[in-house]
Amino acid sequence: MGRDSKLQKRSAKARRRRRSRAQGFEMAGLNVRERMQMKMAKKAKKKTEGKYSVEQLLEKAEECIDNLNFERAQMFCQRALDMEPNNLTILDMMGNIFAELGNSEKAKEVFQQAVMLSPDKGHAKYMYLGQMHCGQEAVQYFNKGIELMIKDYQQQKEMATQAASSDLDNAEVTPQNISTAFCSVAEIFLTDLCLEDEASNKCKEALEKALEHDPDNPEALQLMASYLFSTEQQQEGKTFLMKSLKLWLPSFQRAETDQVPQRLNDLDLLQNLFPPYESRISAAKLLIEVHEYEAAIEVLEGLLDEDDEVVQVWYLLGWVCYLQAEKPNEDASFKDSARTYLTKTKKLYMKLKCEDSSLLEQTEQLLAELGPAEESDLSDDEKLPIENIKDDFVESSEDEEMEL
What we know:
Blueprint: H1 3-27, H2 32-48, H3 54-66, H4 70-83, H5 88-100, H6 104-117, H7 124-132, H8 135-162, H9 175-190, H10 199-213, H11 218-230, H12 234-256, H13 267-273, H14 277-289, H15 293-306, H16 311-326, H17 333-352, H18 357-370, H19 380-383, H20 397-403
């Protein structure tokens, strides 16, 4: 073998050693899961190198997102980003993926990079950043996003006018989008910034703008009710609350009977038809506050059909039944129902290892006030000891996957 050939072999071996050392440094400090993810990412990169265009990679990423496979979507999106680091569409998608994976710091970095590249175009990144920040910083991001949304909507209307069309059904920005964005601002002044100067006026102003853009937005109407209750305008608040409820509760009730949609667990349809889950929990609380107990029970029971492992929903059902039982000449069955719901609350609290000690204290206090039921009146759930919780709730999808 010639001298040149030997040198080439030595050089190749040296390169491999350096590459191996670099990989060792890269893997150092990572746990087993992180190492596996890194290896999978490298394999995906090798497979896609030179094989897919940016458009095709984004299509693959979107397919993974549709299937809720965000880790694989991240791999495709990262490969596209390697090819076009300043592509705003890719950055928006990558930020969204990081947010879905719970990596808020990475999501912030990506969206802030998109802001630097294009500060006056694309509202979505500002809305995400608003959700990821608190206080005045969040308000600033939301306001910038709203400014761009209104601008885009006006352009859409002008284009429709020029095309002699009034069809804005497929518009990228809708009045409801703008209304909901103003709701986000109002909510900050109701919570994080409630003690700030002019917080009440700024909250009211944001809500009025929300209702100006979409008078029939249930979320805006409900937030206006919350604002009015906080300013001790009970009757006006109840009017807004009941108007909000009439806009979505009938559809919610039809969904429970499988009329619309066919499957109650179709999340996309649910999100389009009804306010978000947390917003409906808030609606139930407000209904309890104004003594609309039957409506509150309807809302809460519907929430259980979607997800029966939310401790707060079980507690609120127990609380509203307890309040019903306290009314004069009320049916004694409310007391039994309250006991059953509160017992379930405590069991689920233990199963999920919740950390809201005040909720547990309130649950135990109410159970003590209700007192023990007669053995013959106990439901099957109440006969089970608190520790025996395995069969009391539906297994989560994650548990089911692990068993397969």
